[in-house]
Amino acid sequence: MKFTRLLILILLPLVGCSSLKTSVPDIVPKSTPDFHQYQLEKLTSFDIVSKLSAKADKERISGNMYWQQTESELNLSIKNMLGITMMSLVQTEGESVLTLRDKTYSDWNASKLLYQLTGIVVPVELLKSWIKGQVTDNVSDINYNQDGSVSSFTDPLSDWTVNYSAYQMSHGLLLPKQIELTSDKTRIKLRIDKWQLTQR
User: What is the average per-residue pLDDT within 87-110?
Assistant: First the structure.
């Protein structure tokens, strides 16, 4: 009898400690903006298929956009409804090569190259983060959805405002489905139909 009581006294604190440990919540809940941004930061290689519409003054580009991104390279192509490639861009470290109307042009700055040849400003370097819903340094007026994803923000340095009107669950991640970028004279709309996360 005494042995039984002694055993209970020894085990009781252990049971209490065990139940206490299981009741402690995670430090960062999965629905917080910090956790969502952490997930997006780790996402470095992916392919996107989307509809693109870009307008600036009298210039306009629209079609199906294919975006392939890794840590060191970006491959972007825009095709018309017949599947014919209208423009392609390859950006590597230190060089950007754009093919338009069967002619090839190169420059170290992809955004500058696109503007010179199409008349439309596209913030390529920033878009590599924004397209997956990740905010960049110096943005302001950030608004979040209840699930922790970003709904809108402004980049005062580049004069762009970015709005995310819809998200989709893909590969266990909340990723953008509809994005709109606006600046003083330019509006870019993306409707992403497919995300493919890759390991390269």
Answer: 95
